[in-house]
Amino acid sequence: MASTQVRTLDQISVSRLKGVGAAMQQKLEKLGLESLQDLLFHLPIRYQDRTRVVPIGQLRPGDEAVIQGQLISCDVQLGRRRSLRCKLRDASGGVALRFFHFSAAQKNNLKPGMTLRCFGEARVGSSGLELYHPEYRAVEDDAFEPTEQQLTPIYPATEGLTQPRIRGLCEQALAIMEQQGGLPEWLPESLHQQFDLSDLTSAVRYLHHPPVGTDLLQLSESRHPAQRRLAFEELLAHQLSLVRLRRQQQQHAAPGLPPGGTLTQQFLAQLPFQLTGAQHRVWQEVASDLSQPLPMLRLVQGDVGSGKTVVAALAALQAIEAGYQAAVMAPTEILAEQHMLNFSNWLEPLGIQLDWLTGRLKGKKRTEALARIADGTARVVVGTHALFQDEVQFHNLGAVVVDEQHRFGVHQRLALREKGRASGLVPHQLIMTATPIPRTLTMSAYADLDCSVIDELPPGRTPVNTVLIADERRAEVVERVRAACREGRQAYWVCTLIEESEVLECQAAEVTAQELTEALPELRIGLVHGRMKATEKAAVMDAFKGRELDLLVATTVIEVGVDVPNASLMIIENPERLGLAQLHQLRGRVGRGSVASHCVLMYHKPLSQQGRERLQVMRETNDGFRIAEKDLELRGPGEVLGTRQTGMMQFRIADLDRDGDLLEGVKAAAAQVELLPQNCDGIIRRWLAQGEQYGSV
Ligand code: ADP
Ligand code: MG
C-alpha cells in the first residue's frame, strides 16, 4: 500500500512528465487527463500487431500488418487523382504501395531493388491489394531487423497530440507506477478469488502493452479479463458511492407517519374504482416505509396508465393525517397542472387544503401561496421544481412525491432532502417514473433507492395497434380520422417538436389544425398547445373530454395528463423526432377504453436505419419495459437518463450495455467492501473525480 509520504498517482499532475508544457497540458486536459492515474486509465482503443512480418501472399483486405519486400517499380500514375504507385514483392506474393501525397524527394529515394519494411492497412485498390500511405523504411536485405516485442497501443487522441507523443506519456506514467510498486490495490484478496479477478496493476500494465499472441478480437470487444477487471472496479466505485449516499441519508431522522387513518379510508371509499393488486401491494410497501422514523427513498416504476397517481395520493394522505405537509413535484407545468387537478378532485372533498406553485405563479398570488406553505395552512403543495427554490419554506414537510424522476439526477434528489431541515427531520421521498428503467440501470444509477413496480394495468384496457405510415400517404390518414370520428370515436393528432423550439411546434400545430379543419369540415376540431393560457387549455381539454370535440390537434403537451377513454385513434406526425419513452407515453393516451385503439406513426422519409428500428419497436410491443430496454440499447444510458449533460453516470471504462452482467457481482462485492472504510474511500476516490460532490451534500 502506498505510504502517506509518497504522492499517489492521482495526485501527480501530468505536467510533471517530460515534454509536457502548458500547451500540452491543455491538450491533455481536453481528454480529461490531468493526473498520472488518468493516463494509466486512458486505455488504448485498439492495438496494432507489429510483432511479426506477414508474408505478402497472406494479406487480406482490412489486415493491418508489417510486411517486407523488394521494390520492383515505382511510378507516378495520372488518373482521376495523381498518385505514386510502388510495387513490392516477397517470396509469397506482391502488393502495391499507394501515395496520393508525395514529394519529388520521396519518389527519388525509392529505388527499385531496395528492400522496404512497411506497415499499413491492406485494401482493394485499382491494382489489386494496396497499402495506402503506409509507414515505410529501407532495410538491409538480409540483416536482422527486429520487430516490436509487444502489440502497439493506439490511444484516443486529440488534435495536436500524436500517437507517438501520447504513447510516450503513457510509458512515463507506467514507469512511475512501477517505481511506486504499482497502484494501490483496494479490492480485498477474498474478492479477487471469489470473482476470479486479476490484480489491478497487472491489468493496467497488460492493457497498455499486451504481449505477442494476445487475442486481439477479445480485446477489441472489451471482453478481456484485464478490461473486465477495470470495469468491475469502476462499477463498484459507483455502487459504493451510491450506497454511501444512502447510508448518509439514513443517518437523518424522518417523521414516522402512522398508516391507515380515517381520511385514507374515506379516500378509498370515494374512488370510482378498486385498487389493482399491484397498486395495493406497492401502496403497502410505501406505507410501511413511511411509518418508519427513517427517510424513505423509494422509486415506483409503472407503465403509462398503471395508476401511479393514486399511490402518490395515498402517500400524501399518510403525511397529512399525521399532521405533516406533502409536496408533489412534476417536471413540467402541464404535468403539475394535471396532478393539481387530480389531487383537488380527490382531496378537496376530504377538506384538505391544496396549494399550487410553479414559476408562472407571480405577484400577490405567489406571495400568498408562499405564506400558506410556510405557516402550514397548505397541506398539499403541487408544483414544478419551483417548489425547491430557497424562498419556499415549508412548515413541516413530511413527504415528497417526485413524478418522472428520470429527468432529475442524484443531486436534485439531495437538494430535496434539504427542504425538511427546518424541523430537523428529513422528509420521505417517493419517486415515480412512467418510463420503466431497465434493470441494469436500477442496479447502477438508482442503486441508492428502493424499488417498487406496479406491474399490472387497471382492468378493461385493450392493447393499442400501432402502424407506420410515411407522410406521403397523409391523405389516407386523414380519411382514417374521418371514418373513426364518423363512428363516434374521438382522435388525437399530435405535432412534434421541431428542433427543440416550442414556438415552432405551436405554429406547426396551428397550421395543421387549420389544414385539417379545411379537409374535414364536418368534424369539430380543437387545438391545444403549450403556449396557450392554462384556462384556455383547460377549456379545450374539457370540451374534448365532454365529447364536444371529435379531433384534438395537440403538441406533445398531451403526453401527460389527458384521460379520455372514448379516444381510440392517435396520429403522431414525425415520430422519428421523439424518444421511444415519449412515444410510449403519448400512445398511452389511447387504449384507455374497451374498444380497439390505433396509433399511426406518420414518419417522414428517409428514415435512418436506427430510426426505422426504433419505430419498429413501437409497432411490435406495448410493453414499456421492452421499449425502455430497446431505447437503452439504441441510444445508450446517457441519453435515456438524460444525464449526458450533467455528467452523471459517465464511465471511463465500463459500459452498462456491455458490462451489465457484472452488476450482480458488483453488488455483492459492494456489500463486502463497504465494511472496509479505507478500501471503500480508495475505490471511490480513484474512479469518481466528483466523489466529494456525491459525499458532501
Ligand atoms: P400513470 O401511472 O400513467 O400516472 P394514472 O395514475 O394517470 O397513470 O392513471 C391512469 C388512469 O387510470 C387514470 O384515469 C386513473 O384514474 C385510472 N386508474 C388508476 N387506477 C385504477 C384502477 N385501479 N382501476 C381503474 N382505473 C384506474
Ligand atoms: Mg402519471
From TrEMBL:
Domain Helicase ATP-binding per the UniProt entry, residue ranges: 289-454
GO MF annotations, alphabetized: 3'-5' DNA helicase activity; ATP binding; ATP hydrolysis activity; DNA binding
Domain Helicase C-terminal per the UniProt entry, residue ranges: 487-633
Catalytic reaction equation(s): Couples ATP hydrolysis with the unwinding of duplex DNA by translocating in the 3'-5' direction; ATP + H2O = ADP + phosphate + H(+)
Keywords from the named record: ATP-binding, DNA damage, DNA recombination, DNA repair, DNA-binding, Helicase, Hydrolase, Isomerase, Nucleotide-binding
Gene Ontology annotations of biological process type: DNA recombination; DNA repair
E.C. designation(s): 5.6.2.4
Family the UniProt entry places it in: Belongs to the helicase family. RecG subfamily.
Functional note: Plays a critical role in recombination and DNA repair. Helps process Holliday junction intermediates to mature products by catalyzing branch migration. Has replication fork regression activity, unwinds stalled or blocked replication forks to make a HJ that can be resolved. Has a DNA unwinding activity characteristic of a DNA helicase with 3'-5' polarity.
PANTHER family: ATP-DEPENDENT DNA HELICASE HOMOLOG RECG, CHLOROPLASTIC (PTHR47964:SF1)
Protein name according to UniProt: ATP-dependent DNA helicase RecG
